[in-house]
Amino acid sequence: MQCLLILFCGVAVAWAAVTVQPPPLIQTLSAGGDIGPEFKLDEQGRIVEDAQYWHKVGLQQLEKTIQKAKRAKENSYERKAKNIIIFIGDGMGLSTISAGRIYKGQYLKTGFGEETMLSFDEFPNTGLAKTYNVDKQVPDSAGTATAIFTGVKSDYGAIGMDTTRSETNATQGQLESIMDWAQREGKRTGVVTTTRITHATPAATYARIYHRDWECDTEVPQQSVGIHADIARQLVERAPGNKFNVVLGGGLSPMGALNQSEVRTVKFEGDTETICTRGDQRNLAEEWLKLQQNGTEGSQRVLVKTREDLLKVDVKKVDHLMGLFRNNHITYSIAREEGEPSLQEMTEAAIGVLERGTSSAGYVLLVEGGRIDQGHHQNYARAALHEVYELDLAVQAALNMTNSDETLILVTADHSHAVTFNGYPLRGTDILGPANIHKPKDPMVYETITYANGPGYFDHLANDTRPQNSSNVWLPLKLFSEAELQSPTYRHMATLPLKDETHGGEDVIVFASGPGSSLVRGVFEQNYLAYVMSYAGCMGPAKAIDGSCQNPLIGSVGTSTSSGISLTTTILPIMAAIPALISTRRSL
Ligand SMILES: [Zn+2]
User: Fold this and answer.
1) Contacts (Cβ under 8 Å, ≥6 apart) of 580
2) Is residue 377 a known part of a binding site?
3) Which of 337, 323, 339, 333 shows the shortest CA–CA distance to 393?
4) Which of 95, 119, 141, 517 is catalytic?
5) 534 is catalytic
6) Which catalytic residues are annotated (predicted)?
7) How far is the CA of 477 from the centre of ligand 1 (A)?
8) Residues 493, 447 contacting (CB under 8 angstroms)
9) Which run of H or E residues covers position 246?
10) Is 500 one of the annotated binding-site residues?
11) Ligand 1 centroid distance, CA of 35 (Å)
12) How confident is the model over 304-315, as a mean pLDDT?
């Protein structure tokens, strides 16, 4: 009850000191005098970790970080970012980063490998994000992307909706994303990915839907038809998706623009290689091309489907660029197909379209290296590590093209994987090779990169038709030919038989550079990243916390409590921010 009184006090003080009206939620609370429980409780009396809960967690973490910086007399957190680029290496856990760094050095033949640096290794700030979903200890990309882009942790499989979401109600639990916040401030926005543009990570920037699998109309189950619009439709029919200035990735099929003559040279396996097709005969890519552009920056829209056409685009003249280069995901870069751009090339095109000189309001861009995850799921270690290398090139391109004084760059993963980097290989040993080849007395040669689980189990298990080694469990590695070992579809060994290797649940690292990057420090819940972007970018809920973003309600008003913490930078902004976060958008 004490905190409620403080709340009222804080509100009263702020109102007395400024003449503007308080936000609607606070008006309602004051008028009714009935605040009710701070959070909803479920039937067992536990707190429901809904949007309001996670908004408070995120804002409190921000508040805590700022107060610590103030006590240490640091003020770099105050620097504001005109532009924000967030790179997500899907599934890029710490062992993948370390192995990817060595892979880079060995691939480029610059030395042993271990001493190599990735472009983001040089970033000045790092922190660790706790990745669990509301309902899962080990998360998926939908729930984690929702946390990163909306500031609200949610359930496994949920896209842009909190844990209260419903299959039969498309408005319940809807959330706004960093892209909504950015567009409201006049910033340009874009999404680049190597996966389908409708896949979980990019989808969480623009869609609000019960389940990540509902990428096409044909995937929406009967009870949700007419209630939840599929993810591809949401990209084209609704903001923020239909206002994106850049949309680059795969996914011609869910967009209804299937390329019938697509060539597939290497056969990759796994669930992720299956795609949905539309049943409504709509070509959403063509519909996107015909969308009217509002605003004054010109209206040139361009749709490209090949690398060659992408590189021909005059990015300074194009206002809206869509590139869809593959029916499904873009092929693993280690086996790139004709006509497919690299992540670096897509990133360069995106920044070219988004950068609009000193008079613009800036931009927010997501770049996802989405296939690190999918390589791991199939135990394709080479394919996965090469994707890390490609992400590294894209980050370097962004560093080269942007002004570090005005651009916040974050590089992180949504979750980790059940991949291990193990044994005692000698310095400079091929990261994809055996760990103990230098020990001839060892009864079994094993690889430095192995998996706790996955389909690699079946490929390496001794069987009746192939000789067994002394362990009587695993095939000797020497039975695999050099061509097999070098193949992008070669699977490293997994010790537990699963059709699909699983994610890992440990924290992921966040690398940060540019204005606001010092807010990334210590260990925090993953949803905090949305508040870092919000605060640094003067957009969305945390905008209210800082007077330098010229919010009239907060301004310079401050009242000290006995703890010495300013009310205007604690409780009041948190309450003021909450209604701004919860989307009031109606479903189609
Ligand atoms: Zn995954």
Assistant:
1) 23, 176, 540, 541, 544
2) yes
3) 333
4) 141
5) no
6) 141
7) 27
8) yes
9) strand 246-250
10) no
11) 41
12) 98
Of 406, 343, 409, 354, residue with least CA distance to 85 = 409
The residue written with tokens 């109606």 in the block is: 586
User: 366 CA to middle of ligand 1, Å?
Assistant: 18
The percentage of residues in the chain with a pLDDT greater than 70, rounded to a whole number, is 84
Element (H, E) at 51: helix 51-71
Structure tokens at 105: 């050095």
Residue of 143, 203, 149, 198 lying closest to 176 (CA atoms): 149
Determine how many CB atoms are found less than 10 A away from the CB of residue 486.
11
- Tens of pLDDT, residues 100-126: 999 999 999 999 999 999 999 999 999
pLDDT in tens, 359-377: 899 999 999 999 999 999 9
Picking from 189, 178, 327, 352, the residue whose alpha carbon sits closest to that of residue 249 is 327
DSSP H/E element including 533: helix 528-536
| Residue 377 alpha carbon to ligand 1 centre in Å | 7
Whether residue 271 is annotated as binding a ligand: the answer is: no
Calculate what percentage of the chain has a pLDDT beyond 90: 78
Q: How far apart are the CA of 157 and the centre of ligand 1, in A?
A: 11
Give 504 Cα–ligand 1 centroid separation in angstroms: 10
10 has a pLDDT exceeding 70: no
The answer to whether the annotation marks 417 as part of a ligand binding site is no
Average pLDDT over residues 254-275: 95
Question: Is 155 among the annotated ligand-binding positions?
Answer: no
Top pLDDT among 496 and 551 is at 496
Cβ contact 143:163 at 8 Å: no
Domain extent listing, the chain: 2-14+22-34+51-75+542-581
Q: What is the mean pLDDT of residues 480-486?
A: 96
Q: How long is the chain?
A: 588
